[in-house]
Amino acid sequence: MDNGEFKKCTHCGRLVLSNATTCRHCGAALEATKKTSVKKPKASTPELIVYKICFFIVVIAIVLSFLGDVTFQLTHLFPKPSQTNLEPVNPHTEMQQDNLQPPKQINYKTGNEFRILILQAKYSLSGIVVAKNNNFWLRVVMQNDFDKVVPFDFGIVWGDIADKKLLEKHFKFKSFKTLGQARMLSYKWRSNVPYSADYILSHISHNHIIPANDNITSALFKIKKWNNVKFDGYLVDIIYPSGVTSYTSLSRSDTNPQSRGGGACEIFYVTGVQIGDKYYE
C-alpha cells in the first residue's frame, strides 16, 4: 500500500493506487509516480563552527575534570597514622555529643576559597559503615557549593543493631545524590527485625563529612562498607560567601525540612578518624 494515495488512469480515467504500473480496470500500462524528496537545509558554516567549538569545550572540560579527580585521589593514597595498635573500634558504643555554648567560628579553606564553619557541638561517633558516597568525580563541572566543602557521605549504624549479619539480613542501604543535588541515605528494613522503629531511627545517621586536612581526606578514602570506624570532631553549620547557610542536625529527632538539619543529617567536621587499629589526624 502507498499510504492511501491515488492517481487517475490516463486511459480509462478511473482511480488506481499511485504506485500502480498497470490499471486494474482496463489493463493499460501506467508510468510509476516518482516521489520527490525534500532536502533539509544545511546549517550555515558559521553555525557549524560554533556548535563544534561548544562541543569540544564541553568535552575538554569533562576530560580535564576527570583527570583532575584521578590525580587528586592518587595523591591521597597513603595517609599517615598518628597512633597505631589501638583497641578495635566498638560499634555498639553510643555517640558522644557536647553542645558548645556559645558556638565557635573558624575559617575553612577549600581550593582557593574560604567558608565559615560554625562549630555547634563536639561530636564523636563509633559505628559500622553501611553506605558511602564520594563526591569527587567531575568536581569542576558537576559540584555545587556544598559539594566543594563536603566531599564525603557515610551512612553509619551504631548501638545494638551495629552487627553485620543482622544488617545484611534485615536492611538495605544506599547513599546517593538526587537530581535536585540533595545528598540522601535511603534504608529499608524487614518487619521481623527484632528492634523497635524508634530505636532503629535513632541509631542510623547520614554523615556529611568535612575533612580537617589532607591526611584526614586520605584516611577517608580508605574506608569501605562494613568497616568499623570512629569519627571525632564537630557538628558544624556552613556559611557561604553569598550568606546562605547549611545547617547541621543536632538531634536524631530532626526529621523534616522545618527542623534544624532538614532530616537529621549531620554535617561533621572530622579532625580524627580511627580505622582498624590506626588513628589518623
Describe this structure in words.
The chain is of the alpha+beta class and 281 residues long. The protein has 2 domains: 1-38, no CATH class; 96-280, Nucleic acid-binding proteins (OB fold (Dihydrolipoamide Acetyltransferase, E2P)). It has helices at residues 45-74, 139-142, 145-149, 164-170, 197-201, 214-222; strands at 6-8, 15-17, 96-110, 113-134, 152-157, 171-177, 183-189, 204-211, 228-239, 245-246, 265-275, 278-280. The strands form 3 sheets. Strands 4-5-8-11-9 form a 5-stranded mixed barrel. The protein has a two-stranded antiparallel sheet with strand order 1-2. A two-stranded antiparallel sheet has the order 6-7. A hairpin with a 5-residue loop joins β9 (228-239) and β10 (245-246). The N and C termini lie far apart (78 Å). The mean pLDDT is 84.
Q: Rough shape?
A: elongated
Give the CA-CA distance, first to last residue: 78 Å
Number of helices: 6
Main β-sheet, spatial strand arrangement: 4-5-8-11-9
Poorly predicted ranges: none
Pairing-aware structural class of the strands and helices?
A: alpha+beta
Number of domains: 2
CATH H-level superfamily title of the largest domain: Nucleic acid-binding proteins
Order of helices and strands: EEHEEHHEHEEHEHEEEE
Number of strands: 12
Strand content: 35-45%
Largest sheet: 5 strands, mixed, barrel
CATH topology of the largest domain: OB fold (Dihydrolipoamide Acetyltransferase, E2P)
Mean model confidence by pLDDT: 84
Proportion of helical residues = 10-25%
Q: What CATH architecture of the largest domain would you give?
A: Beta Barrel
CA-atom Rg in angstroms: 31 Å
Report the top-level CATH class of the largest domain: Mainly Beta
